[in-house]
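Lab notebook, bench 4. Still working through the backlog of constructs that have no structural model yet. Next entry is a single chain of 363 residues. Request: give me the structure tokens for it.
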Amino acid sequence: MRKKLLLIVSAVFCAVFFAFGLVACGLNHNGNKPPKPPVGMLSPRIISFGSFLSWDEVEEADVYEIYCDGTLETVCDKPFYRIGDLPKDSDYCVAAKNSSTGEKTDKSNTVKVSKNCNFTDGEILNLTGRDYYAGKITAETRKVIIGSKNKTVFALDVFLAERTADIVFELKNVDVTGYVMTDDYSYKRAENDYNVIFDVTGDCSINGENGSDGFDYSSSVYDNMEIDAGKGEDGGSVIILSSVVVRGSGNLNFSGGNGGNGGRGSATTKWESKNGPGAGADGGNGGTAVKCAYLVTDFDSENFCVVIKDGVGGKKGKPGENGSIITGPMASAMWKDMYDIGKAGKNGKSVIGSKKIIKGSVV
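Model written out:
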């Protein structure tokens, strides 16, 4: 009797202990986790593209409150907002709200929005009437003006020094050859990073320089010297920036430069007894049109577009003519390993992390 009672007590204790374990593990009698408490609306994350603000849509919200420097500026029902004239740099954030329930999120992260008017003379680099500019553009410069009402050409080789404010390149009916890049060749967008804004009027372009062809030694002047050809030069890349915004009333082409062709090696004549032909050389690589984390189009009309065209790699250079009857057979035996070794250059390849098409198109 005592043993039977002990077994019963032990079984009850085990059952209680197992049930307690299930509760401690967060399981009900059906083996399912208990429902989680409801989660409120999450704050949106905002990013600025010049005067255009964009943020994550909040599913439960039907309106968004936009704050400028801590003061409510307006309320809208879309997950974006276009700022009008902004005479000074300002801080913007947004809060999402459900107008039926009154529930509202905390304010989003704050973004710095650069002024879009009221530029001083010291903030403007006016290159009207000039045809060339090269150098580093400092943070003090907020606007660069290139071109005029008539079609012009311009050479532009610039790096942007470290900065926090947006910079506007106002392009008017101009074909530019050159590049605009960050000082460290980085195109990653950091928190509150600046935008490079291309404000376009008419048909404009920015084109990388084409690479020069490699030196060619196929002339008879170099016969029997066994001189290897020169490599083709790489084509120029055009845009390496974190955030690119294209707006205005015109089209803008970004085109990487083409790689130069590889040169041809020197030849051998019939009775050459020592030297073989010169080796062919590689073609240059094509330049990249655009490398950026964000590309945004915000044209005045849907009819305008951004065209992106990467540079084409140069052709491989051929070996010189293998004309000797003495060294020729040996050269022929080693042709692919020692002489015909040139390779065609690679085509450029643009890298765009994210495209945001507000108005217009990218082709």
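Notes after review: The helical segments are 2-24, 328-333, 335-339. The chain has three helices and 18 strands. Flag for follow-up if needed.
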